[in-house]
Amino acid sequence: MGVFSCDTGHEQVVFCQDKQTGLRAIIGIYSTALGPALGGTRFYPYASEEEALHDVLELSRAMAYKNALAGLDLGGGKAVIWGDPDKIKTEPLLRAYGRFVESLGGRYYTACDVGTYVADMDIIARETRYVTGRSVEHGGAGDSSILTAWGVFQGMRAAVEHVFGTPSLRGRRVGVAGLGKVGRYLVPHLLEDGASVVATDVNPKALEWARTNHPEVDLVADTTALITSDIDVYAPCALGGALNDETVPLLRAKVVAGAANNQLAHAGIEKLLADRGILYAPDYVVNAGGVIQVADEIEGFNFERAKLRATRIYDTTKQILALADAEGVPPAVAADRLAERRMAEVGRLRTIRL
Ligand SMILES: NC(=O)c1ccc[n+]([C@@H]2O[C@H](COP(=O)([O-])OP(=O)(O)OC[C@H]3O[C@@H](n4cnc5c(N)ncnc54)[C@H](O)[C@@H]3O)[C@@H](O)[C@H]2O)c1
Fold it and tell me: Which residue intervals of 137-245 are DSSP H helices?
């Protein structure tokens, strides 16, 4: 195991290897200013070690900002395991990984991400205390998409209020792209609040779910049909990069608020949205319900407490939108500033010697 230092602003980057099991992992700790770094483990067949390193550096930084704005006493970290989970994921490999997590002595807490599941966290937990996102049988919180969807709904209410003057979706038309785990919990919140919903998904099973459970939802062929239809709010709930040079000029919605991570395809898109008069509620702010849930599990999971915290995404989104107006910057920039402020101001308190 070696420690890598670089000029990206990260506190610590740790390379882990166990030849016997084929484990190659990188743990990135961006900041522990607010507490132990929390972020999931992505298990992915990266083309190169460089690509894996790039991903962990980006993702761990993003977690620091997300956790700061979620009001958590947790810093930002993330880990990647380099390899195809379908080919190399085994109990010994996960346990070897768990031992590396343990070796950091609580500076980093891991959880699920792409390619890792609650069952994997249960295995990792046999070697380390510093793991969350476990199964209900093992005292975990279970499916994080419930509170993710709840938080997205709260962030959407705040964004809609900013644009239309009332924090309700009543009479609004919302386009949901992606009826996966989060999308399926989001749709009922929207309908209950009085919105009409149009949705799309590439998976026929997801469309079947909508036809069976919510026949009042209109279904369209693809995302282009969705975003060019007469919608007030666009909720990207599928993959990253939903807001790009092709889609933004076509968007008819006045508000974007959805669960997908990394919605802005590249820097500058936030400006393009602002120029078109479209309010973008930053993804990492509104989709923090999931991390709020796994963070709550560290204390011993209490659904009502975690839900209350996820409900506050409404207030945080409002605060960010007000700051954006006051400072004349896009909401994504205001969100970054607010996160940096909290990390600096609360993090500084640790210099008061106890
Ligand atoms: N699950 C969580 O708690 C959570 C938390 C934070 C962020 N997110 C993010 O939210 C997004 C959705 O997460 P999820 O857990 O629901 O994932 P999921 O895989 O369950 O659902 C994604 C859905 O999008 C559909 N999809 C894929 N490509 C599409 C396309 N081009 N057009 C339309 N639909 C498409 C898929 O068929 C699937 O039904 C992801 O970006 C994820 O990273 C999820």
Answer: 145-164, 181-192, 204-213, 223-227
- Contact 144/133 with Cβ under 8 angstroms? yes
Give dist(CA 190, CA 177) in Å, integer. 14
Q: What is the pLDDT of residue 2?
A: 41
Q: For residue 110, what are the β-bridge partners?
A: 131
H or E element: which one contains 236? strand 233-236
The residue type at 280: Y
Q: Which of 63, 65, 239, 246 is the pocket-test mutation for ligand 1 (most atoms within 8 Å of CB)?
A: 239
Share of the chain above pLDDT 90, in %: 94
The Cα 160–Cα 29 span in angstroms is 35
Name the helix (H) or strand (E) containing 317.
helix 313-327
Distance, in Å, from the CA atom of 323 to the CA atom of 69, rounded to the nearest integer, reads 14
Measured from the Cα of 183, ligand 1's closest atom is: 16
Q: What CA–CA distance (Å, rounded) separates 220 from 194? A: 20
Q: What is the mean pLDDT of residues 165-181?
A: 97
At 293, which helix (H) or strand (E)? helix 289-299
Q: What are the catalytic residues?
A: 78
